[in-house]
Amino acid sequence: MRAAVLHEIGQDKLEVLDDVEAVGFGPGKVRIRVRATGLCHSDISAMNGVLPQPAPFVPGHEGAGEIVDVGDGVTGLSVGQRVLVCWLPACGACPACKRGQTQLCLAGFMNAGTPNFKRPGGDVFGFAGTGTFTEEVVVDAGCAVPIPDDVPFDIAALIGCGVTTGLGSAINTADVAAGSSVAVIGCGGVGISAIQGARLKGAAQIVAVDPVESRREAALRFGATEAVAPDALGDAKQRLTAGEGFDYVFEVVGKSATARTAYETTRRGGTLVVVGAGAMDDVLQLNMFELFFDEKRILPSMYGGGDVLASYERAIALWRAGRIDLESLITHRVPLADINEAINQMRTGSALRTCIEI
Hints:
The structure is a single chain. The protein is an alpha/beta fold and 358 residues long. The chain has helices at residues 41-47, 95-98, 107-110, 153-159, 162-173, 189-200, 213-221, 233-241, 256-265, 288-294, 308-320, 339-348, and strands at 3-5, 15-17, 21-22, 29-38, 57-58, 62-70, 82-85, 117-119, 122-126, 136-140, 144-146, 181-185, 205-209, 226-228, 246-251, 266-274, 297-300, 330-335, 353-357.
């Protein structure tokens, strides 16, 4: 079967091969025929080594498709069922799950060290234990979440990561207050979803911050009240908050420099929400006096900061009701053979989300 493979960490391009085989099928597993997958910035981060991932590997973790085989002991799933891929399934038994913090369950991460694929030359891993830049993938049954028939595969794929992460950061993690002021730094698919979440919660001012003009223009269509380039954020802070800072600032880039800017743009007593996934050696520096004196809340948001399955259902309900726009998040579509075109679109910022149709 075909799959897009990164041979070594640090390479800029993927190679689409037709000699890849999905492995690991057996009890507790399902085989999924992937129909659509989104390119998330985390895939790029894994390719360049920002996020740890053994290689060679098949990127992709934001996918949807149909079940083509079900292993022994799997209940609630059947051949032909339409599913989205959950890259962080909850085991239901660990301390985090028992506390209701299923987004912090580590069971899914344990799969990242087990090869999902093989080629004549050896084993191939799947990013985050999945790997959806492929025609078929074998995953734990918990990674396959049934979707209603009226949800298209491309929409379901987005809900599998970017939409859930962005919406959840505003709704679950920040619990944005109605009438508040918000700034979102980084307006790709996740940042735009955070903007939609802040709008749903009733924020009065939502400032989108991004260096790419097309993304700023898109942010206004999705609910931002103003969109500025990074060098104009200080002026927006002065104009809109009299220099005090915003009630909520979302960092959706994953770099210490933008996190520091976000901290400085947050008002005293306000909330900084860290959504971007960054590198282990990229350190955010805060001095102990400002940390105490400013009383700013720093809230990381992992996968939207809430129960993932409930977040999926909420996103679908909001989409059905027309309260969030998911179709317009997909600005580009490419076949798997042109996956490197999608990567260029992500790197240049020309795309909010590119759907890879398989």
